[in-house]
Amino acid sequence: MESGMLSRTQQALIRESWRRVSGSPVQHGVVLFSRLFDLDPDLLPLFQYNCKRFASPQECLAAPEFLDHIRKVMLVIDAAVSHLEDLPCLEEYLCNLGKKHQAVGVKVESFSTVGESLLYMLENCLGAAFSPDVREAWIELYGAVVKAMQRGWEVLPEGD
User: Which residue ranges run through the membrane (predicted)?
Assistant: First the structure.
């Protein structure tokens, strides 16, 4: 991960926009995942808890286990925002997170849909404050996070 990829202006835009979102992480995370399931309903079966498959996105989005997943996703975003000046310090963590996603059947290609859903959620939350510059800053940050997570697909599992 390149630490100097985001300008100070982009870092400030990300921090300010995230400050407005991070006060209600579950609420905004539900918007993100609702959009994700709208864009790609085939992702729904990836989310199973105690061998239970959800019949609908609404059922999934209401499940306490899934709400915990939303909290974790929002914490990952929060970690990235908190470490904008030193994104490389998250490299190993994000690579391992990528491995976990691969293990449950997530495809690397799905991250572009997640990115679209993240931008949708930010636009929905920020309204007019979601300027083209804010959008571009988030695209840069998300791209760096995904690049690090994708390395989890490239690393062979130990013992195999």
Answer: none
Q: What is the 3-state secondary structure (H, E, C) of 50-96?
A: CCEECCCHHHHHHCHHHHHHHHHHHHHHHHHHHCHHHHHHHHHHHHH
Count of beta carbons in the 10 Å neighbourhood of residue 72: 12
List all residues 6 or more positions away from 83 whose beta carbon is below 8 Å from its beta carbon. Answer: 89, 90
Asked, for residue 2, whether it belongs to a domain, the answer is no
pLDDT, residue 156, reads 55
DSSP 155: S
The answer as to whether 87 is a domain residue is: yes
pTM over 0.85: yes
Say if 46 falls within a structural domain. Answer: yes
43: how many CB neighbours lie within 10 A of its CB?
Answer: 19
pLDDT at 154 over 90: no
Q: Cα separation of 87 and 139, whole Å?
A: 15
Both structure tokens of 102: 């691969």
- Residue 118 vs residues 28, 67, 91, 160: alpha-carbon distances, Å: 9, 16, 20, 35
CA–CA gap between residue 104 and residue 78 (Å, rounded)? 23
pLDDT 10s digits, 27-60: 999 999 999 999 999 999 999 887 788 999 999 9
